[in-house]
Amino acid sequence: MNFVATGIGAGLVSALLTAVIVKATPLAAMLYLLAPIPVLIVSLGWDHRSGLVAAVVGGLAIALILSPLSGIGFALITALPAWWLSYLALLGRPGQDGTMEWYPVGRLLAWAAATAALTIIAAGVISTGGDYGAFAQNTRDVAEAFVNAQFAATGEGALDAETREQLIAIFSRLTSFLSAQGFVTILALYLWAAGRIVLASKRLPRPWPPVPELVMPRSAGLILIGALILANFDGFIGALGLALSGAFLMAFALQGLAAVHDRTRGKSGRAFLLSAMYVLIFVTQGILMVALALFGIADSTFGLRRRFGTRPTPPPTLST
């Protein structure tokens, strides 16, 4: 029953980190962003069932502290995605030579993208009771606040009404796309960080995987194509298509980033090249990530690194 005790502790810590958001301070926002970490740590270091216990306990605590809807939101957005990815990360099966074959990090990244997109849309459906009109109004409110903040930050004059309305409409349409992009980045970063913490404590059951060598399965490219087609529809179907498109494009960009780390290993000036690349990503506000995403797509589809190096064959499907 050790997993129950650790799950309760992690759930309460995660709930506390979530509840401080009501303080509406920068520190509270930073603590809120760390809420999935306890669930990831106990799921990876003790038992994935600890993550489920943490989701239930944390959800109940948030429901009592804030509201029942907030408790559901905690379980859906914070705890369950963290548990699911931890569960996948610890999947393994004995190989033909007797060694354990662990779940590939490429598949794990693909599942992180799918989880991010589905979570974003599920949260929207639950919060609006399935009313797409309310969902569209929420995305418009977010887009309007973003446009106003951008022009307030630049100090430029007010936009004319027509241009402002066009920008709000564009960003309102892309809210699911951009939200899923950010969420898959957070999930991947948190999973990596929690894994390093558990590894340092010597409780990680699997050996640390060669992250720079990750390659998503070819089926991830097919999902991206299907998502781009769905994005042309109206309603929640279109929103899901946009969310999947954003999540998988970001996942492919992360694969491209990993490929650069991989191909520069052992090269002179590697630190300078990687530093320059990250600076360019920051300066160009992520535009370089588009090139990295295209490289990631080509890498999965055509096996670029396998053609020009010795890399393992990517997994053919997303099945567990």
UniProtKB/TrEMBL annotation:
<feature type="transmembrane region" description="Helical">
    <location>
        <begin position="272"/>
        <end position="298"/>
    </location>
</feature>
<keyword id="KW-0812">Transmembrane</keyword>
<feature type="transmembrane region" description="Helical">
    <location>
        <begin position="240"/>
        <end position="260"/>
    </location>
</feature>
<feature type="transmembrane region" description="Helical">
    <location>
        <begin position="215"/>
        <end position="233"/>
    </location>
</feature>
<feature type="transmembrane region" description="Helical">
    <location>
        <begin position="29"/>
        <end position="46"/>
    </location>
</feature>
<feature type="transmembrane region" description="Helical">
    <location>
        <begin position="53"/>
        <end position="85"/>
    </location>
</feature>
<feature type="transmembrane region" description="Helical">
    <location>
        <begin position="105"/>
        <end position="126"/>
    </location>
</feature>
<keyword id="KW-0472">Membrane</keyword>
<dbReference type="Pfam" id="PF09991">
    <property type="entry name" value="DUF2232"/>
</dbReference>
<protein>
    <submittedName>
        <fullName>DUF2232 domain-containing protein</fullName>
    </submittedName>
</protein>
<dbReference type="InterPro" id="IPR018710">
    <property type="entry name" value="DUF2232"/>
</dbReference>
<feature type="transmembrane region" description="Helical">
    <location>
        <begin position="174"/>
        <end position="195"/>
    </location>
</feature>
<keyword id="KW-1133">Transmembrane helix</keyword>
